[in-house]
Amino acid sequence: MAEALKHLVGQCRGVKIREISTVECDACGMAKVKRQVRRQIRVPPEKAGIRLAIDFHDMSGDPGYTSAMLVTDRYSGYIWDYYLPDRTAPTLIGALEHLLRTLERQLQCRPEVIECDNEIPDSHQVSDFLSIKNGMRLEPSAPYAQSQNGGAERSGGVIKEKARAMRAGAKLPSFLWVEIWRAAVYLYNRTPKYIYNWKTPYERFYTYFAFRDGVVVTERKPDQTHLRVYGCTIQDHLVGTPT
What we know:
This is Integrase catalytic domain-containing protein. By secondary structure, the chain is of the alpha/beta class. It has helices at about 1-10, 25-30, 90-105, 125-135, 150-170, 175-190, 200-210; strands spanning about 50-60, 65-75, 80-85, 115, 135-140. The chain folds into two domains: about 1-30, no CATH class; about 50-210, Ribonuclease H-like superfamily/Ribonuclease H (Nucleotidyltransferase, domain 5, 2-Layer Sandwich). The protein has seven helices and five strands, in the order ααβββαβαβααα. Strand 2 (about 65-75) and strand 3 form a beta hairpin. The longest helix has 21 residues, at about 150-170.
């Protein structure tokens, strides 16, 4: 636009334009903005399991599954993963019901807020299941504003990168994508994070509930002595087989 204005005087009559640079034209800058990101600092929750963020990711290669649903605890960063054959209301409700029942039965924890994109609010059955039946508040992000659900979006991106690297390193076939994703989520939950003072999401999540319940334990560090190189060759050993 600035280049066109420079030639306007010579190509037209009766035009006088004072020199203007693109950096001085705020209106031009606003008009060309493709996406406006809100930079308001999000205050993290003070309790584990109270605020969850849900994000969906498409999957290919595995004949039985088309999507992955990742549920992230905002307090600890801990992720639960569900692999879905479709995204119909009954399938989503079944996965969410399993998660909520597990949290309540094992940890006596009932989530209060669900951060999500518009896929859940657009399904009246799923939104009614969460808000009416379970009394949770939905906080959907604005359309085309992934930054508002940034925690879940970013963790999902990390899981994707980790899964791709693990598959490439182990040279595994594409029909094992679900198992690779499961392993990637498992390792993510047990990897120290700078934002949590180099504690793992696993430790941060379960230590909170240990202190809440008065369990005499300093920390709930994950035991990783069983881990081996992903995709390495193994051999079966039969122990105690009768002769």
